Amino acid sequence: MFKKNNAVRLVLIFTLIMGVSSLVIMLRNTLVARNNSYITIEAETMKLVQLDPPKDGDPIAIVDTTLGEYRFVLYPQYSPNAVANFTELAKQGYYNGTYIFHSDSGVYSAAGAPNKNGNANDNSHELVERELHQDLWPFKGAVLAMNTTFERSFKQKILGGGTYYNGSRFMTLNTVEFSDEFKQEIRDYSESEKLADAFIEHGGVPNFSQQMTVIGQTYKGMDVVEKLASLEVQEMGAYKVPVQDVKIKSVVIGTYSAAEEAKAEAEK
Known about the structure:
This protein has about 270 residues and is of the alpha+beta class.
């Protein structure tokens, strides 16, 4: 986990890396979220499960976009409510024809909105309480349920705290650039050497750590993830909307099978 008193500095570092126009989204997902209570991280018991390959029988999502397909393993054991929300919507065909509505400087993309500007049509699937877990982190290829809103009492507005929610729209992460200076920043600010080394080796967006619910980890189609994060965009409110429409054709929920994956690769 990254030390709390360095959160603002990390935001400023990421702003320089990603561009000033990204600050609105980053402040919303990071500085605002600082008012929420933090989970306790025990470095000795932390398991970086996203670094392990999927196993036979694991639940997966197959996202077919107009730029290609990528697949990620789901984590219902860690984020049960967010995964259930995503899975139910996918099985209903909700994501078919929805937009990739944000693409940010090669760092990440945001998807699953029925409107090109990123808006959902209503709040019926947007109020899932945020779930954080010490075993899930925003590594390259991570899939995160986007924060939607938060509720605070008068006391919480003064002293901090509150309940944060996510919904149907999701982010798929590529990575920021890890310069030598930034690598040292990560090592200095992380409370876990293992976690810092994982970010440096595998990439990702450390600034999103424990700010949004992680629902999955990409294991196939990383080239598509990279393309989706690097689209030509135009500013549209808080989002960088792709100039050329990029859509999700379908999201299929299934189970992982190493034999079936190998067969599909052989048939290409």
